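Morning!

This is the sequence you dropped in the shared folder:
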Amino acid sequence: MKMRFFALLACALLAACSKVNQENYSKLEPGMSKAEVENLLGAPGECANALRMTSCTWGDDKAYISVQYAGDTVMLFSGKGLK
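The structure's back. C-alpha cells below.
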C-alpha cells in the first residue's frame, strides 16, 4: 500500500513539473534553433521528417506542443490542452 501511494505521488509531481505548459509555449518564437527549443522543452517525444521539414512533438494526446522546423530553425508551432 505504501509503495502504491509513493508511485501515485511521484506521478502527480512529475505531471505538475511537465515542461509542456502554457508558460513554455509562450516562450517559443519563429527563428529559434532546435537546441533552444530542446533547452526549453527537453527532448521531443517524437519527430518526423518530410520535404526538408521536421515536425517534433512533446506531450501526449491530451496536452502537447508541436514544432515544425525548416532545417534547424522554428517555422511554426502549435499546442493543445496546455495549462
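Headline: The first strand starts at residue 46 and ends at 50.

More detail when I'm at my desk.
O.
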